[in-house]
Amino acid sequence: MDIKFNEILKEKKSDISKRWLEVILASYPNDKSGFLMNQQDRFANPIGYTFSTGIDGILEVLVKGEDFSESISFLEDIIKVRAIQDFSPAKAMAFIFQLKTIVREALGKDIGQSQINLALLEFESKIDDLALTAFDIYVKCREQIYELRTDELKRMTFTLLKKANLMSEIPVQEFEHKDQK
Amino acid sequence: MAPKVKLPKPGELSKIDFKTPATDWMDTPVEFKPGTYCWGAKEKDLLTLGLPNPRQWSPADEDWKIPEGWESTILDGIAERLSKYRSFKIFMDICVRCGACADKCHFYIATGDPKNMPVLRAELLRSVYKKYFTKSGKFLGRLAGARELNMDVLKEWWSYFFQCTECRRCSVFCPYGIDQAEVTIIGRELLNLVGLNIDWIAGPAAACYMKGNHLGLEPHAITGNIESMVDDIEDITGIRVNPTFNRKGAEIMFVTPSGDLLGEPGVYTCMGYLMMFHELGLDYTWSTYASEGGNFGFFTSNETAKRLNYKIYAEAKRLGVKYIIGGECGHMWRVLNQYMDTWHGPADFLEVPVSPITGTVFENAKSTKMIHISEFTADLIKHNKLNLDPTRNDHLKVTFHDSCNPSRGMGLLDEPREIIKAVCNNFYEMPENTIREKTFCCGSGSGLNASENMEQRMRGGFPRANAVKYVKEKHGVNMLANICAVDRAALPALMDYWNPGVGVTGVTELVANALVMKGEKERTTNLRFEDLPGKGGNE
Question: The 4Fe-4S ferredoxin-type domain covers which part of the protein (chain B) (predicted)?
Answer without folding.
Answer: 86-115
